[in-house]
Here is the input.
Amino acid sequence: MLQDIPTPTLREARACVLETERLTLRKPTLADVKAIARLANDRRIAENTRRLPHPYTQDDAIDFVRALGAGGRETVFLIENNHTPIGMVGIDWREENSAELGYWLGVDHWGQGFGTEAARAVIDYFFEEFDLDQLISGARVVNPSSRNILEKCGFQWGGVELHRFDALGSSSPVDCFRLSRGVWTSLKSWNNSVRRES
Here is the structure.
């Protein structure tokens, strides 16, 4: 007789706010559309983010926020510093047993450690909320800053693949990374984020 073996499933995550030393991460709303469009409408961001079109308009931001509200296959947080939106971070669930970390910051906020801080908060959230044993991510090979964020968060390099980038209209080499639950557990000492139910 076969036993039912529980498998990891995507459950509906509770809406919450993540707080770090300098950042607040929360679900984006329609009130954030102008800020999201202003930040995302930069070719340097779009060329390093697979699905962001360029130019990125307010209509694109409206469609994005509405898709999240309709229960899309992503867990997304708006990143705020001093109550000002500076970027996005989240988990893409397009493949049922595979979750992918993604993030982008407005250009004015690059090089200040915000990407690592936001990524660590969402990584903690992911491993605390979901029953999967690994998280994947990627960075274009021409984007060493993004690669550094992933390495600081404990991701291990697994090879190079070609991925399509909407803004480029073509594929580009991507360094592929993976973070296991075991490695995350051993690095958990970074945790200085707090979660509040909203």
Helices lie at 33-40, 43-46, 58-69, 114-129, 144-152, 181-187.
